[in-house]
Amino acid sequence: MAGTQSKSSGGRAKSATKARGAMKNVPALAEFSKDEELNAYREMLFIRRFEEKAGQLYGMGLIGGFCHLYIGQEAVVVGMEMAKEKGDQMITSYRDHAHMLACGMDPKGVMAELTGRSGGLSKGKGGSMHMFSKEQEFYGGHGIVGAQVALGTGLAFANRYKENGKVSMAFFGDGAANQGQVYESFNMAKLWNLPVIYIIENNRYGMGTSVERASSTTDLSQRGASFGIPGVQVDGMDVRAVKAATDYAMEWCREGNGPYILEMITYRYRGHSMSDPAKYRSKDEVQKMRSEHDPIEQVRARLLEKEWSSEDDLKAIDKEVRAVVAASAEFAQNDPEPDPSELYTDIVL
Amino acid sequence: MAVEILMPALSPTMEEGKLAKWLKKEGDTVAAGDVIAEIETDKATMEVEAVDEGVLGRILVTEGTEEVKVNAPIAVLLEEGEDASAADKLGAASAAPAAAETPAVPAAPVAPAAPVESVVPADPEIPAGTKMVSRTVREALRDAMAEEMRRNENVFLMGEEVAQYQGAYKISQGLLDEFGERRVIDTPITEHGFTGLAVGAAMAGLNPIVEFMTFNFAMQAIDHIINSAAKTLYMSGGQMGAPVVFRGPNGAAARVGAQHSQDFAAWYASIPGLKVIQPYSATDAKGLLKAAIRDPNPVVFLENEILYGQHFDVPEVEDLVLPIGKARIVREGTDATMVSWGIGMTYALQAVDELAKQGVSVELIDLRTIRPLDMDTVLASVRKTGRLVTVEEAFPICSVSSEIAYQVQSEAFDWLDAPILRVTGKDVPMPYAANLEKLALPDAREVIDAVKAVTYTA
Q1: Which of B231, B235, B244 is most worth mutating to test chain A (most A CB atoms within 10 A of its CB)?
Q2: Looking at CB atoms within 10 Å, which of A136, B185, B324, B448 has the fewest?
């Protein structure tokens, strides 16, 4: 395959994730312009600050139920968003705040949904795991592990039916990669050559169970092999690697070659959800990832090294981002709860 | 010795078929395994192979004959050396009429009262004077899909064997030819996956019809029907829904055992966000399927294999769309109310017409839609008669009948003159043995007994 050679990103991911299989066929790192680097930096930082705030509000009892944070995985969704075209769809699991922010959904609406308020994107009736936007082509937000894979394949089916040239991006985790419907979907997607990118966000743990303890084969990028679906492992901590791999997969899909699998080797710094103490891994492991592979720090270092930004410039971005997040949190705390009459609306049309 | 060749049963529900063609003629030598004839059932054309070898001595049923009963002799096979007179002897013996079938409803021992006239009200949805044509439920369902697919480019059909095979139960016959493989799609055997795929396609603006070969297999897919389709509108605060029709045969067929014989109406009917339709007649099958396809919500459309081949008068109108959520009074009466739906209606109708002969006037309501339940129609009738019997084939516990009984006692307690009774399938997995299967299903006798109990005329 053209443009798919093992590059330096492979080494990074390998060392970052120790027991992972060798990286192969990974498209080269994307060369980012100053604007792209700054965009990636801002977007990733925004997600991180937003998630930190969500964690804080959860701790204060303002967010209830389950709350799954994306901290550590920011490069995946931001790199993919940078590669997508208008009209391409995204669908993901319950770890979905970042995807919504990346595709342009209102952060106030997202945060107010987390607090269960009337101004939430689902009027407070969906919660952390269930938000949708037709305008931004975001199809949820799904709480059943693996369900979004079949649904995302259906989005691709609709693209082919309408011949609109769009690509569906179905995100799922290493845990979901063992669900039966994933393989039912793979089969149909290849059988009908549907334009769908399957993104396995391999953060090494399906809740508390490591990939090695859950999967008979741990190179998840090859899970499509028996269906004839190609796949690559990508350093999901490097936004440039994500962008490059996604560009490649997008082109593959748009040319009518059918589905493509991107296994993003990534890491979540926090527990599976807010109630997970994460005792299945060592503090050192987390610390090592944070200090050596942090997706935001990598961009920050490049911006400084190339003198595209000064420390002050970056501080200004941070300040800007914090202000947006603070405004979202403010709104989410002061917005009223949904009117009791909303209990019986939106059940059937 | 001459042996008879009998009309074979070619499917679990086949009772009769058409002898389409003889491929051997009288006097031909036949070896075991030779194809001797073609039989058309309502589902398919099948070849009949000879089991024994010999000479085709006599053809007893000429080709082109329709409605040949299963097990009726269709030819006589002679052994080498036998002459045709042996065939005639055998043919004459078997020409005697078969034992009369036991009537479903034994006649009443004594007529307790003067018969009442059966009052069959006109369907308010069908204009008076509309020309009626005879159609099977199967044809009605096919016509409904074809009409809606012509009307809306975004409607498509997917499922196992719906395209090239023309439908496992021939419901989609002819649709592939008319609409092509883009819109009539054979899926792999992968219910969970293709149901999720269809729901995703619906979220993206298409209107899929998902055919399950039977709703028993939809248990593999029920997560997507409920979690992905039924709940999305609510979870998205009204932004996004899933207009999918999930349809296929539901409930018991005949002799297919426990895993292929369950009625799921109560399961789906308990889910907010779904509409559930369970039609009995061909008219309702057509008019409600068209309505379901146009409905912006996910709709579970429960058919019945036994009903597929039954003929009904269907109004010949340009665009037959019937309202979802509206029951229909099919017999007017004064002594008791009976509520049924789907195949339960076959027992209900037999019982009501027999009871009329015995002087008991029953008002029979066909629910047609299970969710939303048309309780207004049921309650108005119960307030008139003071008595209620429900009839369905499903399991009794937590059934649709249970829900109706709850709502009636809650809303019309003061009008009730007797406890509400339900006639249902028995609380057992469906047995295979013919006699046990019969016992597991309701029958008209049980329905009559229930009406007599609530009217204190037993």
Answers
A1: B235
A2: A136
What is the CATH classification number for the domain harbouring A27? Answer: 3.40.50.970
State yes or no: pLDDT of B103 exceeds 60: no
**Is the omega angle on the peptide bond into residue B372 within 30 degrees of 0, that is, cis?**
yes
Asked if the structure places residue A249 within a domain, the reply is yes
Selected residue of A125, A157, A335 to mutate for chain B interface (largest B Cβ count, 10 A):
A157
- Contact across the interface for B204 and A349, Cβ inside 8 Å: no
**pLDDT of residue B2 exceeding 90:** no
Residues of B within 8 A of A159 (CB-CB) are 204
- pLDDT band of B34, cuts 50, 70, 90: confident
- What three-state secondary structure class fits B311? strand
- Which residue from A132, A181, A348 is facing B236, i.e. has the nearest CB? A132
B328-454: CATH number: 3.40.50.920
Taking only the tens place, the pLDDT of each residue in A77-98 is 999 999 999 999 999 999 999 9
Structure tokens at A319: 């300040």
Ordered by start, the domain boundaries in chain B are 3-93, 132-315, 328-454
Closest CA to B306 of B169, B142, B443: B169
The predicted structure's pLDDT at residue B81: 75
Domain B3-93 belongs to what architecture? Answer: Beta Barrel (2.40)
pLDDT tens digits for B402-439?
Answer: 999 999 999 999 999 999 999 999 999 999 999 999 99
Out of A120, A126, A187, closest to residue B190 by CB: A187
Contact at 8 Å (CB) between A229 and A258? yes
CATH 3.40.50.300 fits B132-315, yes or no: no
* Contact at CB, A159 and B204, closer than 8 angstroms: yes
**Distance separating alpha carbons of residues B345 and B339, to the nearest angstrom:** 9
Contacts of A106 in chain B (CB under 8 A): none
Instruction: State residue B41 phi and psi, 5-degree precision.
Output: -100, 180
Is B191 an annotated catalytic residue? Answer: yes
Q: Say if residue B99's pLDDT is above 60.
A: no
* A337 domain-assigned: no
In a domain, A203, yes or no: yes
Predicted confidence (pLDDT) at residue B106 exceeds the cutoff of 90: no
- Residue B237 to residue A139, Cβ atoms within 8 A: no
Residues B136-190: pLDDT tens digits?
A: 999 999 999 999 999 999 999 999 999 999 999 999 999 999 999 999 999 999 9
Domain B3-93 shares a fold with domain B328-454: no
Mean pLDDT over the full length of chain B: 92
Residue bearing tokens 């997507």? B224
Please indicate if any CB of chain B lies within 8 Å of the CB of A184. Answer: yes
Instruction: Residue A83: give the domain boundaries.
Output: 11-331
Shortest alpha-carbon distance between residue A103 and chain B (Å): 17
User: Which residues of chain A does B159 touch, with a Cβ-Cβ cutoff of 8 Å?
Assistant: none
